[in-house]
Amino acid sequence: MAFYIETSAFLKLAVEEEGSPAMRRWFTEHRPCWSSQLLATEAHRAAMRLGLAPELIEELLDSISLILPSASTFELAGRLGPVDLRSLDAVHLAAAGEIGPELEGVVTYNRRLVLGAAAAGFPVIQP
After folding, report:
1. Alpha-carbon span 113 to 9, nearest angstrom
2. In 38, 62, 107, 124, which residue has its Cα 20 to 30 A from 97's Cα atom?
């Protein structure tokens, strides 16, 4: 049993916004959590825009296992639907698929990724 956390859900752990308290409660109760190495890049970029301390992001990242996407991950991401799925979202989705049958669900608040996960047959979790 494993969960894939995408950036929109991860950031709710670091900032106070709608859904943040529920996401924090969910996160403390559900492990293991995985994401793509892409999460680190996206989270640090968002932290700079939001004025968050890099140390906070690093502390949160330490509690998630990061997958280093392979060439085949990027190749698969290029073929995933739906057609309006953005490139980085497709990489997240392809990386989630690398978890295999242990994948319990994709944790995301990203509308396009919700549709992509549903198209790929992955359960979507939005605490």
Report:
1. 11
2. 62
Q: What is the DSSP string of 76-106?
A: HHTT-SSTT--HHHHHHHHHHHTTGGGEEEE
CB distance 95 to 38 below 8 Å = yes
Under 8 Å between Cβ of 47 and 14: yes
Q: Kindly list the domain boundaries of the chain, sorted by start residue.
A: 2-125
Q: For 2-125, which CATH superfamily applies?
A: 5'-nuclease (3.40.50.1010)
Residue 52: strand, helix, or coil: coil
**pLDDT (tens digit, 9 = 90+) per residue, 84-125?**
999 999 999 999 999 999 999 999 999 999 999 999 999 999
pTM (predicted TM-score): 0.94
Sequence-separated (6 or more) residues with CB below 8 Å from residue 24: 12, 13
User: 26-36: b or e for each residue (b if 16 or more CB lie within 10 Å)?
Assistant: bbeebeebbbb
The answer to whether the CB of 55 falls within 8 A of the CB of 45 is: no
| Cα separation, 82 vs 31, whole angstroms | 29
